[in-house]
Structures
1.
Amino acid sequence: MSRHLLGLENLPAAEIRALVAAARRHAEWLRDPAAKGTSLRGRFIVLGFFESSTRTRVSFEAAGKRLGAATVAITATGSSLDKGETLLDTAWTFESMGASCLVMRHNRSGSPHDLVERLTTMAVVNGGDGRREHPTQALLDLFSIVSHGLAPEGLRLTMVGDVAHSRVARSNIYALTALGATLTLCGPPTLMPAGIEKLGRAPGRVIVEHRLDEALRGAQAVMVLRLQRERMQEGLLPSLGEYARLYQVTAERLARHAPEALVMHPGPMNRGVEIDSQVADGSRSVIREQVTAGVAVRCAVLERACGVAEWAAPDGATAPAAAGEFEEVRR
Ligand code: CP
């Protein structure tokens, strides 16, 4: 088993389940803010966040520290990347200092993949690369879904928003379809990549529906995606007002079409654009729970990346045993 976690596209379903089950074990003891783990004592983890982040960066740092690791966070500004050092030379620098793991966010899709072939002892965990993948976000999303008693097998989840620029969308498509869910993707045609249906890990599990009312109907979970204005070229949307009119997830729309659905958002949110505050802060919202789950999931991912036995992945071939773990996650 590779210690790297670059994406969920090819991660076996049993390993996805095992990571969520391990995160559940961490979530138990993490509830006590004074509790400390020891499984990463003596390990050195570098958090290379070469693109902005709040949730991912802080939760990886919190996870590493709660498990006893030494963590150092670095950004592009103020590092030798500023002076023209290559990303590989920067990664080799961390490896030469004895880092067990580099958690990396970068705006270039595929950048963590370029490093792993050239590293020998340091694992790489993808904290989000361009529009390609954000695997730990999808794992914490899965954790949140299962925690609310929803089985991924047969789940009907609707994803609304800027699919084209969303690494969260891709990682969720890979993970959820691998586990038997069906995803309806909704957004304007300019923000919906042609052929996105083919990303599902089984045929027919990804559907595109441009009409929001239709897409919401019968959904058990609604995942709202951020409108990524910083990655957009001109002309993809007529106006924010027009976008909000057609695609904002509002309390009225939810009440009409999916009153029982869990409401999710990976953050950061554009309140009043893709999501109404009444929905974001409403009784069906699990957005803050998603953030809490992030620390537990990243504890499991860091233990795996550092080669710690305690993360206790069941053998990759024993899917039924791992599937049983999901029962424990449900409250
Ligand atoms: N969801 C997410 O990746 O948030 P940050 O950009 O704040 O890390």
Note: The beta strands are 44-49, 70-74, 101-106, 123-129, 156-160, 182-186, 206-208, 221-224, 262-264.
2.
Amino acid sequence: MKNFVSVHDVTDIDSLVGKALSYKANPYAGQHLGVNKRIGCLFLNPSMRTRLSTQIAAQNLGMEAIVFNVGSEGWALEFEEEAIMSGTTVEHVKDAAPVFGKYFDILAIRTFPSLKNREDDYSELYIKQFIKYAGIPVVSLESATLHPLQSLTDVITITEELKKSKIQPRKPKIVLTWAPHVKPLPQCVANSFSQWINAWGQADFVITHPEDYELSESFTNGATITHHQDEALKGADFVYVKNWSTFNDYGKIYESDPGWMLTNKKLELTNHAKVMHCLPVRRNVELSDEILDGPNSIITQEAGNRVWAAQAVLSEILQSK
Ligand code: CP
């Protein structure tokens, strides 16, 4: 594995999931892989889980992890080619990224979309410029359109739960449902979850959202899409809850109908579904207390698995170097 920015960087999802679960069983098995190696974790935006789990994963592999909050502590970076830098940006990525390439063996980056210009966000300029100029492997800690470490974690968590259940040999029904929120959020987690579940190909995958909240077909193709949440939830084995803003009329909130929030009553429609969310979550807006504090929630297990997802990816890159 050279870089890790989407599911397309993975040749065998099940094998990567297996590697993550073997690290979960034996966290220090790969401690020799990262000796005398250093990862730089650059954050242009806030994070709790991604930041901590990536550092722990690196340390489990014997690597040193250095976190740099570029967004709040670094020089404001310019990403446009041929920019005339007479505004607020101080340093071009063309100059900064090769320096990171000298300091680190792997570069991991978190950026967010602007949610103002869809073409710019979906061009993934930031992460592509780091790949172009750093000269070392780049790992996405969430980009403008995708969150691959989260999605790998989600497949790991589903695999783990399937092993404990009697669902197989039939395919599990996995439902991605839109949920209300008070501010426009990126489509990254929903895009990425869709991309990974479709590529994994081992589920009956349904996406449900209000009208006008369509995601990009480049990620959702292969899923069944419905505007009827109750219909979607029927017989579900896993319900993945997430808000996202509009894709077509980009970055807007049209709908904050509290009727879309998952409750125990709605959960009765499912096959005792496990409920997932990437966190952070706005309680009683996006997801109800009764679900989050109830027996069907696997959100803490899911967040814990972020370590093993990151460790599997970093070890693949270290072994390819
Ligand atoms: N799920 C996730 O990426 O969490 P953080 O934003 O806290 O990293």
Note: The two ends are 9 Å apart (CA to CA).
